[in-house]
UniProtKB/TrEMBL annotation:
UniProt name for this protein: Glucose-methanol-choline oxidoreductase C-terminal domain-containing protein
Pfam family, one: GMC_oxred_C
Glucose-methanol-choline oxidoreductase C-terminal domain location: 84-219
Organism name: Amycolatopsis acidiphila
PANTHER family the UniProt entry points to: CHOLINE DEHYDROGENASE, MITOCHONDRIAL, GLUCOSE-METHANOL-CHOLINE GMC OXIDOREDUCTASE
Length: 229
């Protein structure tokens, strides 16, 4: 695009976010006033998790508008892959800074990610069929009771991927020998004087929880190291 290169860095080449799937249920009529809005959160390890890794998250919550349910109320068991290995890209569309960037999130871009996501959704469905939970449910809305085999379920997940909206790692932090590093340990952009990045984009890999607290921690730590002395 004929833009002068000041530093040749891999910006936007390791986008990560946490994909998920809305396994939705119609609430039984006698439980339409269920409260609180978020009822339960579960972190667990998939069968392919690394040692000590909690790579799956299932949350039971009212993420779906009740008007979409035949009973007037709905609950969702959202399964999410909190430690994906897939990476996407963010690139410029043009020289005009007002033009939206081109974003390819590449969710479930590896066989391992797809397999772990399937495992998470199956775990959520098993929870919904547990006798303690099943009494709250009138019917499964998505993917629906007719979807019973793994291949059909995997296709449904891939066609209806949800996302937590925790994008990270497009200008990752790293050491001198890291080929993917764009900034150093205090957010300074390599090869560019006077430019620092302090947000979720410098996190080398998406964390297993929400990014809000992580970014606050990064900002406070970098402030202490660079400016508070």
């Amino acid at each position: 695009m004929d833009i002068k290169v000041i530093a040749d860095l891999p910006v936007g080449q390791r986008l990560q976010d946490q994909p998920g799937y809305y396994n939705a249920y119609a609430l039984a009529p006698e439980y339409l006033d269920m409260d609180p809005a978020v009822g339960s959160l579960l972190w667990t390890a998939s069968s392919q998790a690394a040692a000590g890794e909690l790579d799956l998250h299932v949350t039971a919550t009212h993420l779906m508008d009740g008007s979409l349910s035949p009973t007037g109320g709905a609950i969702v068991l959202m399964a999410a892959l909190t430690r994906p290995e897939s990476t996407g890209t963010v690139t410029l569309a043009s020289r005009d800074p007002d033009d939206p960037s081109l974003i390819d999130p590449n969710y479930l871009g590896t066989e391992r990610d797809a397999a772990r996501m399937l495992e998470g959704v199956k775990l959520g469905r098993a929870i919904a069929r547990n006798s303690e939970f099943a009494k709250f449910v009138a019917a499964e809305l998505t993917p629906g009771e007719a979807v019973t085999d793994d291949d059909a379920l995997a296709e449904g997940i891939a066609a209806n991927v949800a996302v937590y909206g925790h994008p990270t790692s497009t200008v990752p932090m790293g050491g001198a020998g890291d080929p993917w590093a764009v900034v150093d340990s205090v957010g300074a952009v390599k090869g560019v004087a006077g430019l620092r990045v302090v947000d979720a984009s410098i996190i080398p890999e998406v964390p297993s929880s929400t990014t809000n607290v992580t970014v606050i921690m990064l900002a406070e730590r970098i402030f202490q190291r660079v400016y508070a002395g």
